[in-house]
Design a protein that fits this description.
The protein has eight helices and no strands. By secondary structure, it is mostly helical. It has one domain.
């Protein structure tokens, strides 16, 4: 049986636990700033560009990107890594040109909001439950978009 290359030590588990507590603390601290629906879903429309930019960058610097791109480049050459980036361009354009104006016209703030308009409340509930199961959504539920953005900024500095 092959030996493991890496194993978690008590120090590793402590760091993970501390990060988890800090993320939750940020979410519950920022809860006081999310008093209305616009505050919760749109961060009060008062986010500065550099904070939003750091959040966007860190969302695209996760383990898939840092480890996955290296693995794709190793296995298939640089063409594989470029194909991933080039494939993202149409998705970003569709979101910017089609979906964002559509959300604005429908006066909805999110995909679940759109699902409720289009398919009804049960579909939105199913979407919300499946998303909550797939992610740690406690800090977002507490502080909304503001919490998500500031936790992404924290992730940026950790990366």
């Amino acid at each position: 049986m092959p030996s493991r290359l890496l194993s978690l030590t008590p120090v590793d588990l402590s760091i993970i636990a501390i990060c988890f507590v800090v993320v939750l603390a940020i979410g519950f601290y920022l809860k006081r700033f999310a008093t209305t629906g616009e505050d919760f879903f749109m961060a009060g429309r008062g986010m500065t560009a550099w904070i939003a930019g750091l959040s966007f960058i860190s969302a695209n610097l996760g383990s898939l990107e840092t480890m996955g791109w290296a693995a794709i480049a190793y296995q298939y050459g640089m063409l594989g890594a470029h194909a991933y980036l080039i494939g993202a361009i149409p998705a970003i354009l569709v979101l910017a040109i089609v979906m964002m104006p559509f959300y604005y016209i429908c006066k909805t703030h999110s995909v679940p909001g759109y699902l409720a308009l289009r398919f009804g409340e049960p579909t939105r509930a199913l979407s919300g439950i499946s998303f909550a199961v797939m992610t740690v959504a406690i800090y977002v539920a507490a502080g909304g978009l503001l919490s998500a953005i500031f936790n992404e900024v924290l992730q940026f500095f950790l990366i």
